[in-house]
Amino acid sequence: MDLKGLVLGLVIGLVLGFGVLYGLSRTNGASTTTASTTASRIFSVGAAGTLKFAFGKLLEIYSQLYPSVSVGQPLFEGSGKLAQDEVASKQFSLVAAADTATIPNVLFKNNLADYEIAFGVTQMAIIVDLNTTVGREVYDLWKQAQQYQPLSVQWNATWSEIFKAIALSSAKVGVSDPFTDPSGYQAICMIKLAGLTFFNNASLLYDAIYGNPSKYVMRTTEVDLLSLMASGQIDFVLSAYLSNAIPQVQEYKGLAYITLPPQVNLGSLDYASYYHSVNATWTEAGRTKTFACNPVIYTFTVPKTAPNPEAAVEFALLLFSPEGQDVLRSYGIQPISPGVVYGNYSDVPAPLKPFTVPLSQVPQYAPAFP
Amino acid sequence: MSLFKASAISVFSLTVGFFLYPLLLLMYLGWGSLASAFATRSFLQSLGITVAISTLASAVAVASGIPTAYVLARYEFKLKPLVDAVLDIPIVVPHTVVGLMVVLAFASYGLGPALGELGVQIIDALPGAVIAVSYLSATYAIRTIESAVRLLDPELENAARSLGASPFRAFAEVVLPSIRGAVLDGALLSWARSVSEAGALLVVAYYVILGNSSIYPASIYIYQAYIGLGINEAIKYSAALVLFVLAAFLAFRVAASRVGAKRR
User: Domain A126-265 belongs to what architecture?
Assistant: First the structure.
């Protein structure tokens, strides 16, 4: 290729690349110009991967309500990675995590935030591959368990059978990495609580799964596990939240989810003290970390470096509106209203204060926070 | 100094600086914690598994790369442009896609069930990791060796053949010794490419199960340190990995040049 050809190739590449980007920005309205300073700064949301569906819907509504605001492409990924990405890039106007520890541990420590607002609680669920015999067996048992009175003898026996089929068989389970995604350590909590509740032995199921590397497949988030499940490599995904399981089983043929009793699903604030009777310890990258087992609470903060904090507040107001709360419920997230503020309440933006209370006013929730 | 020379030196300096600046900064920030990194048993295990995977992938790349490169350099055939394009695919497509392709082809469909029956594990197992990184790194060995074969005068082989050597003997005694340097370079390039792989391993082998242990490849180990423990831990292990790879490169070069000198 001569020099002319090289230059021509470069020009074509640039024109094509930027042309497509420009075309897309024209069609999605992101380039809408406005005289308002607020609107000209991009409003980007970074959120836990499991909020993808609920926040995706809320952002859709937000864009209709505030058409002049440039809404950037949201980023949904494991809360741990998300928080580290925010430390490195400071690109988000609103950061939402899937536990109460990530924002304090990462963003507080890096002086990017000093409060978080708990706005919803979801619960752990188990995704089941109905194409496998063991998956079908567990699903049928689960349907039986729904018929029994909770805590009755049959109910206990059926749940014991369910967890035996999952953990004490040759079935393969998928779990997230506790270091990269809260759903990883929350799966450990759930399995230990199941052992404690149905076998009076917190280690029984845990040892059967996590003590045998051939028994589990670990990936960075539970979304990666679903791809492996769809290709027949996993029978159950243990690191699933109801908020994601509901839309995800619709995407993949032959998958279903089973809900779990409140004693083990980390979805009830009333059981917070019981959840604390176990914890999750995991060793990786030369370090051992112990995670407290808490309800699966979603929290958000508006970082101090938010490019568009005004838009973030508008989005948070939508979240606390009746319409926003309905969206959360439709994706398996029970709204916490008023939102509970952990950290420095005085730094919560004034428009959000009517919708929030400091943790000190709801001491019964204190065990769920760091 | 002429304007041309000054411009060339400026661009050269900028380019070298572009490569050196982040590397030196990483080493500067991580220097104080190198000892701690190399004293961490799980990190040493991760280096060990990474070297094992990369060396096996490099061996696969060379064993398959020499005949493939020879065919590409010496023969013309109808679908050659297509074969050329296919061999470049691992360089072009995202590595997570390659990971997915390996899972589909060797674990879930096609050969997957047969390999499973033979007891060959792919997901989170050494064979899967080696297949994934071989797929990604073999192209580098093939292209390096192919260039060397192209530069080799075919008349040398013809002369050997006219003296009665079989095609295999002519290849072994004329071609191979002449492209030895390129084979070593190809092996090294392929090895280095394998050490740096993360995307495909995230899908195929997040860790490798050996006995009762799960050992994370170095790239994933560092990713976990970054996400789970913060940037300082990631810097520590990254600096240690870079130092280790540099030392391995140097050792390989020195060993290769000594072998070359002895043969001469």
Answer: 3-Layer(aba) Sandwich (3.40)
